[in-house]
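Most newcomers find our protein records easier to grasp once they have seen one. Each record describes a single protein and holds just a pair of labelled lines. A learned vocabulary of local backbone shapes supplies the integers on the structure line. Nothing more is needed to start thinking about how sequence determines fold. The record below serves as our worked example for the rest of this section.
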Amino acid sequence: MAKILFVMTAADHWTLADGTQHPTGFWAEEAVAPYRKLTAAGHQITVATPGGVVPPVDQGSLSPDANGGEEGAKEVAAALESMDELRSPIRLEDVDLADYAAVFYPGGHGPMEDLAVSAESGALLTAALASGKPLGVVCHAPAALLAADDGDGASPFAGYRVTGFTNAEETQAGLADGAKWLLQDRLVGIGTDFVEGEPWAPHVVVDRNLVTGQNPASSAPLADELLRLLG
């Protein structure tokens, strides 16, 4: 059994270009699907957020439309309710990477608000990448990579093949026009080799110990890759 750290957003909104606050948080499937797979394999999960705030769920991610119907929505809500770790997160500022065998970042628009500018998260990501430990990041959570710095003003993720929520998906979701910035553009801007898959289809990219997933549907396959790397 290994201890795995889930780093999650504490933000319940995403500030758009006009200053309005779009309600958000973490995307339920992106926490639930990996949690199920990793705990079923015998691993123990610890949740960390900025300030130790209980991570808010994006209410849109609990809807029938987001979960394949009413039954799916009930199932994901029940799964979240059973995840006691979500209600007692530790402070991201207190995390010791040495305590964990792997690190995973679920998405939702929340990370675009807080983790994208969190120095503590950026330092953790830099250390996790250098450690060789499996590091999984899905959907909008690669926004957190923007806060990572190699000490010389460059990104430690430059040159890595990555994926994340694409411009096409943000446009189809109806939020691209109002956004301050788009994730795909910013990841390209820090020097990553962004690999775009079909909108909304599962798409996972593995480069060394870094595993990135494009969208909610990529969460479960990403967890499979983390398990493979954990051996």
